[in-house]
# Entry
Amino acid sequence: MKILITAAGSYGDIAPYTGVGAALTAAGHEVALATHDSFAPLVRAAGLEFRRLPADPRTGRTEPGPQATEPGPHGQAAPPPGVASGSKRALLRTAAAFLQELGGGIAEAVTPGTDLLLLSATTAPLGRHLCEAHGIPALELPLQPTAPTGDFAPVMTGARSLGRLGNRAAGRLSLRVVDRLYTDASRDLRARIGLPPATPGAVRRRADASGRPVLHGFSEALVARPADWRPGLDVVGNWWPWHDPDAQLPTHVEDFLAAGPPPVFIGFGSMAAGEGERLGALAVRALRRAKVRGILQSGWAGLSAEAVTAPADRSDILTVGEVPHALLFPRTAAVVHHAGAGTAAAGLRAGVPAVPVPVTADQPFWAARLASVGAATAPVPFADLSGEGAADRLAEALTEATTNPALRTRAAAAARRMATEHGTQAVVHAVRTIAT
# Structure
């Protein structure tokens, strides 16, 4: 089959689909992945055809507007990486503009001969229109729980349960908010591809009524499949980013790891852009107070120890760029991260305790889940990493993560369960079923 995967957002929204695409290629399919220019090398390295989507959040460019914003998981409005949210109304306008750009890009990415669309949560509300226009089947592959349930509140609302009735009501309301967010983009896309007018909600409800399969790419070690979900909504386990099976950590990282006890990893992914110097100084103080070594991953924040420590005073702290979490995390004592879905899963897969520092969007949800299974300290909200006492609070969490054996025991138990899940092969099997 000729398969097109569409995914939009930051690294954590894109990278898991490279692993899916590589597995489908190995199964004999022709696979293209449509996403932003920043991720073209990642896509091509996995052996997939790259097709371009506009509004790259890494470069901050849309066409024609000057500023890109990515919607959060399941199309929920979230600030651009590293940008504080302003008024909710302004944020929704910016997200809606992003989606209008995205709709045109996805329409261009669906070339003649495409047999199947694989849709991320952000691209699914647009991809459904293209399936209708071209008669192409689709498989939706969200990275977060998307359907209403009584078990928990919508992931974008945080971690607090509203009770079973309240959770389901909030879930339904969340879907209506998403429908509204996609209204302009859907109207423009349907006109472009010659479809009669239809609201995003109507199209979504038709898709639900058809019983279309939805495979969720997260682990039941963190979130059990809700019993009140309809058949066809399945939780299959994580999809891991593709990386070269012969890849190794850089020599300077190996040398640092060999020079002392396992360090603590600190990184914020695509969050906190422009705050690298402040966060680097904070991280160094916290590591020193907790008396542990550290690896700082620069990420979009530009996190670094270089600006706050003299060269002779860096033997216990290393700054790195992009390195595969699958290779680094198992060698650490703990991981401090923003609790994005992918990073949270990677830390748990490594069997090491976490200190979650959620910033926005679905991150408080995943941070609370890590703590609830006993694999993480209590979350330290990113807002708490400001002002007096921030270094002390982070240092206390580092000490707990590296000295409390129960955290490592529970993280290791979760890792063993995750090892029994085969999320990528579940997608391959589902595609095989559709093909026959």
